[in-house]
From TrEMBL:
It comes from Solibacillus palustris. Gene3D superfamilies: 3.40.630.30. Coiled coil: none annotated. CDD domains: NAT_SF (cd04301). InterPro entries: AcuA, Acyl_CoA_acyltransferase, GNAT_dom. Signal peptide: none annotated. Transmembrane segments: none annotated. This is GNAT family N-acetyltransferase.
Amino acid sequence: MNHVKNHYCLEFETRHGKVLVEGPVPSTRLASYTLHEDLKAFRPSHQQHEALIEIAKLEEGRIIVIRQDETVVGYVTYLYPDPLERWAEDRIPNMIELGAIEVIPAFRGTGAGKKLLEVSFMDDTMEDYLVITTEYYWHWDLKGTGLTVWDYRNMMERMMTSAKFEYYATDDPEITSHPANCLMGRVGARVDTDTLERFDKLRFRNRFMY
């Protein structure tokens, strides 16, 4: 798989001033930025910064960021699925996972998440990919946002469908463990039927549910 990484960017105004959305960002440039201390949904911000730099070094890894000057206030990651997950059992060359999307609380409600996705898919190369994402309610900042599980789910749905992600059924036990969890995917324009058939086999272990 040819993982071409052309660089794209756009500026937009928020109530906190102008920000730049750009990517994929090379690891060296990412290392020169500061990650905002509130980007801590998955691990402390300094550890998250290190993790993003490592992802950016991967052949398939893609990091899109929102930054204000040299401070990253949001990001989204794309890489091959975690080897421990079901989705990695068949290493489909052109299937990557939107692994994490995070924006600091101050920038929520500004459309920042949608802008991250918009820049992600400006690159025509992404039309060669099936991009999947797994949404688990225990990763959501329900306390910080004050939203219910279902309000948060609806917010995520609006954001993901803005980039042409759709729901996919699955019998994966982590996803079926709560009705708010879900599997979504974006099928690029040049994704072939073989890729989709292999994805279907990963989605269902219990064939009667297919």
